[in-house]
From TrEMBL:
InterPro entries: Acyl_CoA_acyltransferase (IPR016181), GNAT_dom (IPR000182). This is GNAT family N-acetyltransferase. Pfam families: Acetyltransf_7. It comes from Candidatus Caccousia stercoris. Residues 1-60 form the N-acetyltransferase domain. GO terms for molecular function: acyltransferase activity, transferring groups other than amino-acyl groups. The lineage of its organism: Bacteria, Bacillati, Bacillota, Clostridia, Eubacteriales. It comes from the Bacteria.
Length: 60
């Protein structure tokens, strides 16, 4: 929490998007909290609630 709302996450995300600007489609899996949703929407991501696909994860 002490590092939140200081622009660090935004800068990191901008660097990641710049590094992978040649990648057409970017898919992000994250938690569903209001703070997280607002953060990614403010960065231009849209929440797709009508995707006709499934995600498969293997957690370690």
């Amino acid at each position: 929490p002490e590092y939140q709302r200081k622009g660090i996450g935004t800068l990191l995300l901008q660097q990641i998007l710049l590094e992978y600007k040649h990648v057409y489609q970017k898919v992000l899996l994250t938690d569903n909290t209001e703070k997280t949703i607002q953060f990614y929407q403010s960065a231009g991501f849209i929440m797709d609630t009508d995707m006709n696909c499934r995600a498969f994860l293997k957690m370690y």
